[in-house]
Amino acid sequence: MTTLPTPPNELAYLRKNDIRISDIRIINAGGLDIKLNKEHFQYFEILEDIFSSNLKGRMSIIDAANLPENLKLCGQEVLLVSFATNPNMEDINMGFVIDKISERLPLKNEQAQIYDIHFTFPTFMNNIRQRVSKAYDGPISETVKDIFKNTLNAYEGENAIPLFTELTYGDFPVIIPNWRPVPAINWLAKRAISVKNKMKSDYVFFQDLDGFRFMSLSTLKSAPVREIYESGPIRSRYVRPDPEGLADFDIPARNIEKLIIGGYDKSAEVMNGMYSSNMTVHDLLSKSIAKFKWNYQNEFISELSLNGHSLLNPWSDMYSPYTTSKEYLIPRHNGMFGGVVTVPSALGTPYADVNILEYAQGDNSELWVQSHESNKMQLKSSFIEIVVQGDTNRRVGDKVIVQINDHSSTTSKIDTTLTGNYLITKIKHKISYGGGHEMQMRLNKDSFIEPIPSSWEYEHTDSGVDPTETVLE
């Protein structure tokens, strides 16, 4: 029997990670409905990833009722969760399919066991079970809508899962040859170009807590800033100065509790064509060859980046000029996606009808191959990971500002290589009754807030040692 959620009690919110867990239940294939209380699990996690096409998660179970036996768990069960981080927010209501149970280990008293339940969004199972075998000739964004509606989410009721799409440029005739839906959509994403910006190919297909999105990274980068996070000491763990005071959830919201600074791998970036590449297109029908060069500095558009200044100084760039660092060989068959079309001559002219190849340029590899791979690598090149208080308003794809202090200084000077605008590319929501809700997020950026200088002088701090002297121990 389904019970109504308990009305939120605003006075119950005292600390920054407090969360309202309205409902957690498992429904088996036969309709048996079991509500899980705080004694039944340690925590559960939900993972959002901008470079993944599906939500997934796991729940750590402490089980004294032997649920796998009593519920006859067999991988067809539904896990329902409902939660929110403060009383002013509507609950996040999600339904998942349980698809895996880890090893079950007995506790010391041998009257209970512990194991992990892994769950995924139902579209993951639909992707495994469905295939796409159909011809399309419209914009890629319309093709994606059709694939999503007919294979991943055929349900059209009030609770249908939304797909948010950004209109793509031009028509793209294609035959999907019996592929699974998600690989087909990701294949199309590589070839998609936005009508808003025809200079870049940078589409991604992902799911957040609101639904699915098929859109360009450039559009995400140009969106308004959703939050500001700051490194430094914890200012407050409480959302109100006293239990009877008014709640202010912004007090601890900006604080970064843990910071991990990612490195870079220039050799991998260069070899994979992030900064430069050559592409040779060989038309198998006309026997023609066309060559295209990709140069990071020539293609960098400051207005479409997060922070305005490129990752390399153009005057000392030792990677972009060498386009032979990555070679693409693309075969093309002129007219592969269309047949012969007869163009009649105008009346009264001496010219005969002309036969031409429809869609003669094929899939326009020169517009997307080098651009798509480089743009994704640029965003992945610089990242940080932070742990902050839980917030059910945050989503992957959100644009945020991060301010990080210079670790070499005792002043309030910021680190200009780390501070700036970021995109949230991954969120791990960790939720428990005892620990509340915290988020571990990966943030990526494709540029700096200040240009990298061509030359500079290192300012030595006074440590009592003359830097010109060699000191031997």
Provide a descriptive summary of the structure in words:
The protein has 473 residues and is α+β, with helices and mostly antiparallel strands. It folds into four domains: 10-125, Thrombin, subunit H (Beta Barrel); 131-219, Phage tail protein beta-alpha-beta fold (3-Layer(bab) Sandwich); 225-257 and 379-445, Beta Barrel (Elongation Factor Tu (Ef-tu), domain 3), CATH 2.40.30; 266-371, no CATH class. Helices cover 14% and strands 34% of the residues. The protein has helices at residues 67-70, 122-129, 140-152, 181-191, 217-221, 266-271, 296-299, 365-381; strands at residues 20-27, 33-35, 41-49, 56-63, 78-84, 92-101, 105-106, 113-120, 132-136, 163-165, 174-179, 203-208, 211-216, 225-231, 255-256, 258-261, 276-283, 289-295, 327-332, 340-343, 354-357, 382-389, 399-403, 420-432, 436-445. It has a 15-stranded mixed β-sheet that branches. Helix 3 runs antiparallel to helix 4 (181-191). The longest helix has 17 residues, at 365-381. Residues 1-12 and 463-473 have low confidence and may be disordered.
